[in-house]
Amino acid sequence: MLGQEKLDRINALAQKKKTVGLTEEETIEQLELREKYLKAFRKNFKNQLDNVEIVYKD
Q: What CATH fold (topology level) applies to the domain 4-50?
């Protein structure tokens, strides 16, 4: 998973985009960080689903 520092940076860039806008470098950084975040999220979610065991009552 991404560290707290990178999550804070994603949030800071999102807030800046809403208020004053981003430079070209910041936009690229934001896209890269989002991609890393989504990749980590998908990996963790897949691991969760792989560990789910369905138990029937009968």
A: Helix Hairpins (1.10.287)
